[in-house]
## 1
Amino acid sequence: MERKKTVLLGVTGGIAAYKSATLASMLVKNGYDVKVLMTKNAGNFINPIVFETLTKHKCLIDTFDRNFEFNVEHIALAKWADVVMIAPATANVIGKLAHGIADDMLTTTVIACRRCRKLIAPAMNTEMYLNPVVQDNMKILEGYGYEIIQPAKGHLACGDTGAGKMPEPDVLYEYIYREIAYEKDLIGRKVLVTAGPTQEAVDPVRYITNHSSGKMGYAIAKVAAARGAEVTLVTGPTAIRKPLFATVIPVTTAREMFEAVREESRDADIVCKAAAVADYRPKHVSDEKMKKSDDRMALELEKTDDILKYLGENKRPGQFLCGFSMETEHMVSNSRAKLVKKNLDMIAANNLKEAGAGFRGDTNRMTLITAGDETELPLLSKEETAAKILDIILEKTSK
Ligand code: CTP
C-alpha cells in the first residue's frame, strides 16, 4: 500500500482556529495523515482533544511534553511532514518565524522543516494585517520560501470589515492538495479544459440547457493543475467553486464557448472537451418575455458551432484532443464514430444508463477509446477518473 501523504498543521491563537478543525477533518477524510501542533494561546480558542479525535494523533503544544513516540519530536516531525500549513497564523507567529525565534513546539518544528513546502494562512484584524511590520515580516517569509496565502475579505470577529479573514477550509485544502496530492508529471504542458452546460436564451426569462454539473471537467482541471500543468478552464454556468490554480474563463452560450476555446486552444498541448455543449439554439431570441397564447408552440432551432469538430480540423501537430461522449445506447460504436469524424486522439465515453455514470453524481464509469485501444475504467470518483484520463494522455504523448 502507498504511504499516506503527511500534513503538519500548525494552529495558533486566533478565533479562526475553529475552522482548522474542519480542515483537519477534510484532510483525514481524503486520506492524508495529519498531525497538529498548537501554540499555548490556540488552546484558548479550541481544545486539542478536537484535533486528537479527528487525526488520531496527539496534538502537541509543549516542546517538553515527553509523552510521544520519538525522543526529539520537533526534528522527527519536521522530517515526517510532506507539507506544513499554519492556519490560522497570527501576527505573532509570523513575526517569530520571520526572525528565527523558536520558543515553543510549533515554531521549533517549523524552523526545523527545511525539506518541505511551508504555507502560511494569516488571520487577524485588518489593522494588524495591514501594519507595515506584519507586511514586512510576510515578505521576509516569502524570501525564505514560505508561501503566504492571501486572507479573505469580509466581516471579522472583532466587528470590523476588511482583509484578514482566514480562507475557508476547502480553499486551504486545495493549497495542500496542489502541493502534495500528485507527482508533478505535467509540468510544462498547457491543458485546456471545457466544463459544464451551455445556456441558449429563448427570451429574457428562459433558456435551453442540459443536466451537466461540470464536475467531470472541473475534476480534470483540478488534477491537471495539481500535476503541474498550466490549466485554462472554459466553463459554462455551474454551481461548483472555481479551481484556484487554473485560469477560469466563464461563458454562457455555445457561441461564447466556441470563441474562448478557439482563442485558448492555439497554444494548448492537451484539450479535454468535457463540456456538454448545446447542439441547437433558438434561431430567434425574443427581446420580450414570450406570453402564452395557443395550446401549442414551436421553437425554431438552429445548429450551434461544433467546437470539437473545429478543434479536430485545426489541430496543431503534437496537440492531443480528447472529446467526451455520453450515450444511452451503442456507446462504443457511436463514440468511435465521433473519434474518427472529429479527428480526435481519444474519446472518453460513458453510458448514461449505467449506475454511477453520467450527470451530477461524484462517480463515473468511463471507457477511454483511442484509435487502437479501449480502456474500460471501473466505477471511480470523478477525480480518480480525471487522473486516469490524464495518465493515458501522458502515456500517449510521451512516446
Ligand atoms: N461538442 C462540441 N460542440 C458542440 C457539441 C458537442 O464541442 N456543439 C463536444 C462535447 O464537448 C463533447 C463531444 O462534442 O466533447 C461529444 O458531444 P455529443 O453532443 O455527444 O456529440 P455529437 O457529435 O454532437 O453527437 P450526438 O449529439 O449526435 O450524440
Note: The chain has a mean pLDDT of 94.
## 2
Amino acid sequence: MKRMKSPTIFLFFFFFLISTCALLLEASNNGGGGSKEVPDIKRSDFPLGFLFGAATSAYQIEGAYLDDSKSLSNWDVFCHSVVGCGRNGSNGDIADDHYHRFLKDIEIMHSIGLKAYRFSISWARVLPRGRSGEVNPAGVRFYNMIIDNLILKGIEPFVTIFHGDFPQELEDKYGSWLNAEMTEEFAHLAEICFKSFGDRVKYWATINEPNIFTDLSYQRGVFPPSRCSEPFGNCIHGNSDVEPLIVMHNLLLAHGKAAKLYHENFQPKQGGSIGLVMHCFMYEPLTDSELDRKAAKRALAFNIGWSLDPVIFGEYPEEMREYLGTKLPSFSIEEKNFLKNSTDFIGINHYTTIYTKDCTNSGCSPTANRAIKGFLEMVEERDGVPIGEPTKVKGFSVVPRGMGEIVNYIKIRYNNTPMFITENGYSTPDVDAKGIKELVNDVKRVKFHTAYLASLAESIIGGADVRGYFIWSLMDNFEWLQGYDVKFGLYYIDRRTLTRLPKLSAKWYENFLKNKSDVMKL
Ligand code: NOJ
C-alpha cells in the first residue's frame, strides 16, 4: 500500500476527529428525550440468525368470542359487565377479527419479511372448562392452522401460553390466581400446548408480564377480577398490600411447573426453549443522592427481580425480603429446586424509562409510601423537564437509551441468560392522530424503533446475548382499558370494515429487514 505523507495524515486525522465528534453529538441527542434524527441502523448491525418479528395477544386481536365452543373468558365477562371496560364502551368481542382473517394477517407478516411472530393462546378456546373439561378440538385446530401457515411462510411461531385471559369458570370456581389450584390448571394447559403444537413451536413464553398482571388486577384493581383496597383503589373486595404477593407466587409456581414439564418430557425430543416474559421499565434515580440511587436499584428489584430472581436463582430478591418480611411468601425446598434455572430465556417487554424518587426519607404519594411498592415513587420529570417525548400511553415516554440500559442490567444480574425483546412499541399521541392520513404516515413510530434498535445494537456489541426483537404490535388492536384509541400497530385497522392498511412503519420495517433503502431517507 502507498504510504501517506505526514500533512495528508494530519488532514486525515483532523477530518476523522471532526466527523466522530459530529456522530457522537448526534447519538447523544438521540439518547436524550426525543429522537430527533434517525440513527443509521441496519439489519446487518444484528447477528445473522436474530429473530425480527411482531407481537400480538389473543384477546386483543382474535374476536370470535363465542365461536366454535370457546367459553367466556375473564375479559369477556369483565367487558360485558363493567361500564367502560375499554374506552368508549369497546371490548374484544370482534377485536381485529383475526380468528377469521388470520391467513390475510400471515400474508401481511410475510410481505413485511418477518422472521417470527409472537402470539398467545386463548385458554378459553383450547380448554373451555379448564382441566375439569375436555380439550376443544376447534381451538387446537385454529392454532394448528396459524402455526402451519406461519411455517409455510418461513415465519417462526413464538407462543405465549398465558397473556391475561383465562376461562371465567376458573375465577368463579376458586378465585383463579389467588388459589394454588391455578398452578395445576396452568400446567395442564401448558402440557396440552406442548403435546399439540410442540413439534413445530420452538419458542414458548409461559406467562406475559406477571408483574403488570398482579398490579392491574390485584393492586389497582382496574383489570379483572377488580380486586384492590385503599389507597390503591376502591374495590368491593381485595387487599392491595397482600394479594399481589400471593398471586405472583402462584404465577411463578405455575411457570415453574410448566417449565419442569417441558424440560423433562418435551424439550429432549422437541428441542425448543421456554421462558418468562417481563414488563421491564428502566429506572433512573431522580437526583444524584444516595437515597434516590438506592431507590432506583430497589425499583429494579421490586419490579423485575420479583419475578426473575425466583426463576433463575430460586429466591425472591433480598431487597424485597428486607422490606416485606414474612408478608412475602416463601418457596419450599422442592419449589426452589424446580424454579431455579427454570427459564431458558428472558422475554423483555420494554417501552420506557422513568425516574425514581426515594420515599423512605420524605413523604410521597400514599400509594408510593407502602412496603409493597418498596417506598419509592416514579416520576416522569426532572426539574420540570420530561424524561422523554410523551406518547399516547401515560408514562410511556420515548427514551431510547433505556433499551440498552435495561438489557445491560439484565445481562449482568442474570449472567447473560439469553434474552428476547418480546415487545417494544410506540403509541401515536392524540396530536398526531387527526385522521387516517396522519395515523398512517407514522414518522414518529419509525424514529422510535430506529432509535431503540440503535441502543439495542450497542448492548449486543457490548456482549449482551439478545436473540430477537418483536414490535408491539403487528396491527392496531384492543389496548385493554384504553380500547381502540391507543394504536401501536404497523398496520392501521379501519374499525368499520376491519380493513388492514400498512403504515409508513410497516414499509420501513420491510425495507430494514430486506436491506432496502431507509424510507426516511427516500
Ligand atoms: C404489554 C402487553 O403485553 C400488551 O398486552 C399491551 O397491549 C402492550 N404492552 C402495550 O401496552
Note: The pocket of 1-deoxynojirimycin is lined by residues 57, 60, 208-209, 349, 423, 472, 479, 488 (CB under 6 Å).
